[in-house]
Amino acid sequence: MNSATLNPDTLHSNCCGTAPLTARLEPWMIEAVSSSANQRLQSAVREFGSPINLLNSEPMLRNIDELNAVADARQVPFRVFFARKANKCLTFVDAAAEAGAGIDVASEEELRQVVERGVAGDSIICTAAIKTQSLLAACIQHNVTIAIDNDDELATVAQLVEACSIPAVSLAIRVSGFRHDGQKLFSRFGFDFDDVLPLINSRWPAALDDVARVTGLHFHLDGYCANQRISAIQQSLRLVPKLRQLGHEVQFLDIGGGIPMSYLDDEQQWLAFWEQLEHSLREPQTEPITFRRHGLGLQSIDGQLRGKPNVYPFYQSPTRADWFAKILDAPCDDQFSIAAAIRQQHLELRCEPGRSILDGCGMTVARVEFCKQHHSGDWFIGLAMNRTQCRTSSDDFLVDPIVLRNSEPSTEDPETSIEGYLVGAYCTESELLSLRKLKFPNGIGVGDLVVFPNTAGYLMHFLESRSHQFPLAMNLVALSGEVPRFYVDAIDRSE
User: Fold this and answer.
1) Which residue range or ranges hold the Orn/DAP/Arg decarboxylase 2 N-terminal domain (predicted)?
2) In terms of domains, do 290 and 375 share one?
3) Range of the domain at 126
């Protein structure tokens, strides 16, 4: 074992992109891949198979506190609801509850598991894109707030209420179609803004008159634009008094997720990567930096680049606290700040972050099973995992992995340094774990471990698949210490 490469200052020396994108690492991550812990990590992979997901909830508590501090400084009643769909592991449900956060569930099974962890119904909101009758019945049974998306959902709730004696049902109307910069913001979720009052006035099911309360407004916006959120909040606040006049005691405004985070500390690396990728696409005679010159959403047509990046903005600013502060400090109707307007209307502000409060909470570790040189000269490094185990809907995960050597590189090998691509286990030509070309200055070989940093938010579980009958990755909680210890998360113990 070459312990020098595991020093925090040189941790990235075994692997980097041909255009480097160096991950920001948490202290527990550095401990988990340190020289003293490497054999324990190797043992865990042997015991549980490859890949494994490593989890640590300490950064989650810090991230929730960061948002709470912004709201507290402005005296805004506020509560975070953890978007459970971002990661299935129950250690994060427990941590969120410990921090006083609520839980946002997106399925009946998520709801069942959260209730079994002792989370009260009034600390849960259901925002599932598809709400079956049984899911809605479970929400009603456990007094969970339901984010109503359409007339059919509302009709199903009415049918369930008629079928049994229910004292009260808590509903949040999901709103879309906000106007921003002269256009309507698109979302497939919710009622159009202009249709909310007609819904309450003329289409409200009679069966709900005495039991259903619209306790909140809710919206979902794609992307991370603070100004779009400001527009949506301003318009939502104008709806609140109108709904109260119609007899609904609106208590909260929920702005959904989309709170930005940054995987990288170095903006210049991010800019340099895109500059090199664009040059590679425009000049096909140059060395590619992605597999077969994949444009990650960009295309070169007659020397001109078309399209837009189809990846998460792995470097962005502002993030989390500064982004949230910008929203709360924005003007509302030229009289108040948004924070003051929320206070004046006696509302609780809510949000449903997933990725941003799981920032720093996980890593995915896979074992190298082969290295082979392609006729192009590039190397393919095969890992015992598939691309659904570290991917969302983006084209690629643009963060350099960490390589932990299982043994010293051979001094007899004149070509220790190689460049190539990480490939996965699915039997398709497109099974690339990373589309970027990577450098391995100290070589890489069978038995080495490849660590993907900061994967807890969406990357571990959102698309994971058992195709080819491969088992799903085991999820291990990493306890910090001089020699980190791992235990199996309850989600895997309960299955």
Assistant:
1) 77-269
2) no
3) 58-260+316-351
* pLDDT confidence of residue 416: 85
Please state whether the peptide bond connecting residue 205 to the residue before it is cis, i.e. omega within 30 degrees of 0: no
DSSP line for 236-273? HHHHHHHHHHTT----EEE--S-----SBS-HHHHHHH
CB burial string 92-108: b at 16+ within 10 A, e below: bbbbbbebebbbbbbbb
Confidence band for 8, pLDDT divided at 50, 70 and 90: low
More confident residue, 441 or 164: 441
Res 11 pLDDT > 90: no
Give, as one character, the DSSP assignment of residue 203: S
Give the largest CA-CA distance in the chain.
82
Distance of alpha carbon 395 from alpha carbon 228, whole angstroms: 25
Q: Coil, helix or strand for 116?
A: helix
The CATH number for 406's domain is 2.40.37.10
Measure the CA–CA gap between 257 and 239, rounded to whole angstroms.
21
**DSSP, residue by residue, 46-66:** HHH-S-EEEE--HHHHHHHHH
Domain boundary among 299, 332, 351: 351
* Close Cβ partners of 386 (under 8 Å, ≥ 6 residues apart): 424, 425, 426, 431, 433, 465, 467, 468, 470
Number of domains forming the structure of the chain? 3
b/e per residue 400-421 (b: at least 16 CB within 10 A): bbbbbbbeebeeeeeeeebebb
Task: Please determine, for residue 22, whether its predicted confidence score (pLDDT) is greater than 80.
Answer: yes
Asked if 6 contacts 35 with a C-beta cutoff of 8 angstroms, the reply is yes
Q: Tokens standing for 179? A: 């106007």
Does residue 334 share a domain with residue 201?
yes
Q: Using only the alpha carbons of the chain, give its radius of gyration.
A: 25
Question: Where are the extended beta strands (E) located within 408-469?
Answer: 418-423, 438-440, 449-453
Do residue 239 and residue 203 come from a single domain?
yes
pTM attached to this predicted model: 0.94
* CA separation for the pair 218, 197 (Å, rounded): 15
Q: Is the pLDDT of residue 4 over 50?
A: no
Q: For residue range 363-416, what is the model confidence (pLDDT) as tens digits?
A: 999 999 999 999 989 999 999 999 999 988 889 999 999 999 986 554 444 458
Is 38 in the same domain as 83?
A: no
- Ranking 155-159, 303-307, 351-355 by mean pLDDT, the lowest is 303-307
Report DSSP letters for 337-351, one per residue.
EHHHHHHHTT-EEEE
**CATH code of the domain containing 116:** 3.20.20.10
263-287 per-position pLDDT tens digit = 999 999 999 999 999 999 999 899 9
Q: Indicate whether 299 pLDDT > 60.
A: yes
- The band of 3, judged by pLDDT with boundaries at 50, 70 and 90, is very low
> Among candidates 239, 270, 267, 266, which has minimal Cα distance to 253?
239
